[in-house]
Amino acid sequence: MKFLKWTLALLALLGVVLVGGSLVLPADTRVERSVLIERPTAEVFATLNSFRRFNEWSPWFGADPQAKYEYTGPAEGVGAGMQWSGNRAVGSGSQKILESQPNQKIVVALDFGGSAATATYLLSPEGSGTRVTWRFETRHGYNPLNRWMGLLFEKMIGGDFERGLGSLKHLLERPSS
User: Fold this and answer.
1) CB distance 119 to 136 below 8 Å
2) pTM value?
3) Domain 21-173 has CATH 3.40.1480.10
4) How far is CA 94 from CA 91, 118, 156, 162, in A?
5) What Cα–Cα distance (Å) separates residue 80 from each residue in 39, 71, 144, 154?
């Protein structure tokens, strides 16, 4: 009986530490990567302002070649959307362009089956090319589990962003045939 009391007390203390500790963790998470693409800003913008070419450079496309994709709304700009459904590696969700400032910025709402986030593509001329910054942001509110998970986002998607931007760079810089 004494063992059971100690076990319950320890579990209660662990719960308090996990929940209480989460309150000192950030309520927001941001992951950001950038790359210089040796192409005019208008060309880079045109590729990012539509989801029709997203899978040509997406770091997740190869994780499930059998995934299903559906495009909604206009072909480009505000309202353009894409829904996907695939295996565990890609899951299911949707993305929709919320804001489109020509040659400067594209803001995308992300929904991963109830978990909302925002992706932003920032474009700025740099030399003869374009600096593209891909930013992911999400709010955790007071959800303790989400706040703890927020600590892992950098490791979970940082490499994906680097691969995706590398693929975008390769796609846009390759010679036309």
Assistant:
1) yes
2) 0.83
3) no
4) 10, 11, 19, 21
5) 24, 8, 33, 27
Look at residue 14 and tell me whether its pLDDT is greater than 70. no
Spatial distance between the Cα atoms of 160 and 136, rounded to a whole number of angstroms: 11
Domain extent listing, the chain: 21-173
- What are the φ/ψ torsions at residue 148 (nearest 5 degrees)? -65, -40
Tens of pLDDT along 64-107? 888 999 999 999 999 999 999 988 888 899 999 999 999 999 99
Q: Give whole-number Cα distances, 50 to 43, 82, 88, 97, in Å.
A: 12, 9, 25, 8
CB atoms within 10 A of CB 9: 10
Give strand pairing partners of 69.
Answer: 84
Joined tokens for residue 84: 């996907």
